Prior knowledge:
alpha+beta; three-stranded antiparallel beta sheet; 9 helices; 14 strands
Amino acid sequence: MIQTAVAPKNRKATAQPRSPESSSYRDLLARFHEVRNFSAKLSDNLAAEDCVVQSMPEVSPTKWHLAHTTWFFETFILKKWKTGYRDAVPEYAYLFNSYYNAAGAMHRRDLRGLISRPTVEQTRKYRASVNADIDDLITNADEKLFREIEPILILGIHHEQQHQELLVTDIKHVFAQNPLYPVFRESKIGNSRIDIARMEFTEFDEATIEIGHHGNDFCYDNELPLHRALVLPFGLANRLITNGEYLEFINDNGYARPEFWLSLGWQTVNEQNWRAPLYWTELDGEWWNFTLSGLRKVDPTEPVTHLSYFEADAYANWAGARLPTEFEWERAATKIDIEGNFVETEQFHPAPFSKTPQSAELAQMFGDVWEWTRSSYSPYPGYRAEPGALGEYNGKFMCNQYVLRGGSCATSRTHIRKTYRNFFQPDKRWQFTGIRLARDLS
Length: 442
Ligand SMILES: [Fe+2]
């Protein structure tokens, strides 16, 4: 499930989410266009036919992402603040609302692939039109009005970045259905086999730490309130689990041994007939991996990805370890710079880690793959969802999902934070999700 954020309609009514990244309107408009243009760039190489396919209910067509992010700016900014604004096509409000009940009725999520109109070309015109209206509104806003709009504009920018990640993972799922194995981007994936750093556990003492976002820059409401949490002694693996290591689990019959699996996981494995990560296929006794650069042999040095929570948990049990809690992960991330293999590298695939003398003690914490934690996605103490449509952004999804941390090779570097809480149901595999092990220290 993609998360949304809360941005208050009236900043005085709430302390969350934070605004502003205190920029002038020119800086913020430049940022707006930069992010909007990146969505266009991601879809540049796609044919119109690619942009309308919905390969499963959770996947949205590229065209829908391009339109929905535009609807967000139109609904929560233009219709509220642009004097005399009239939507050119009122039905777009129904077609491109995702799940905001307070914003009106909406089209069914699982039927988005049946909508051939507006065309891709008309959707691009819709984007251009809303871009121009936002430009006009912000450019002509006085200081008071700009400060009112600013947090929602920032929220809309982050919202679009979330959908850029979904656009990438959704088109991967769409292309994976095609026996021609289409290529989204020619390969920037490295081919050199390298020596992977040995897995070691960095140890942390018991501590009471602050969890959640601090500072005045943007965050989603689910990263608040800042609060204290007791974290017992633990060890955290210095890197992600690789394909090679995961193959050992497969070859040890891990998918057929119920002792490693949660009951619901065991049921899912058998119902779905899972025998390997999503996008792996066995051809003539060898494992192949569908990537956004086409079909490739499984590289044992790359981080394993496209795993459900159930598989990550079963692997950890098999390995005699466990998944970290989100609080352990956040504590470990405190002193680590946010660097890694993000969408800006345009590799669209996780990269191997080779230890160098300059390597951090904990590597691959950011980028590459989202790391499953064993923490249920729950509200922090004191959390209250805001009233109104934007209050539906996060809070209503705090049920039956697990938290993931760190971002992936499809996440924007400017979107992720150390306190960022992504979340998905435990059986979902189409995001770039992987494993970092943890263990108790007695
Ligand atoms: Fe959305």
